[in-house]
């Protein structure tokens, strides 16, 4: 088991890593005009837009795969570093955040599949785009819930 001091060191390193990865994703978006979020909602030009931005989207998704590892690790270690790992709300919040990471993985691979379909000229069923929308919004809302639960268990 990791002690509080080591958990704190690792949490700081993971937070820095997550921040660096997020910065890199923002830089790609600034340079290309492509971001993940526009493909996480229903839109009329979905297929043409995702096909046009596929290369940049793949780079962003690759960084997001590393980002989700960093944020998941951070949220696992933070409660131990702060001495609240046994608080019931914190434990539930961490589990919810790990579920967010799983949804993020599914979301990323679904986006990549849709981009490949669009690049190949295959039609994308609107129901599949609606599924992406629901998946992404569920992930975001679960993250809000996870953060609230963790915050409620933090020392005052």
Summarize the structure.
This protein has five helices and no strands. With 156 residues, the chain is mainly α.
How would you describe the overall organization of this protein?
- It is a single chain.
- The chain is elongated and about 55 Å long.
- Helices cover 79% and strands 0% of the residues.
- The mean pLDDT is 97.
- The protein is mainly alpha-helical.
- The protein has helices at residues 4-32, 46-52, 54-82, 88-119, 126-152.
Layout of secondary structure:
Elements: H1 4-32, H2 46-52, H3 54-82, H4 88-119, H5 126-152
Helix pairs in contact: 1-3, 2-4, 3-4, 4-5
Key structural traits:
156 residues; 79% helix; mainly alpha
Gyration radius (Cα, Å) is: 18 Å
Number of helices, counting only DSSP H or I runs of 4 residues or more: 5
Question: Topology as H/E string?
Answer: HHHHH
Residue share in β-strands: under 5%
Q: Average pLDDT value?
A: 97
The count of DSSP E runs of length 2 or more, i.e. the number of strands, is 0
Uncertain segments: none
Taking the sheet with the most strands, its summary is: none
Straight-line distance between termini: 25 Å
The computed structural class is: mainly alpha
Helix content: over 70%
Overall geometry comes to: elongated
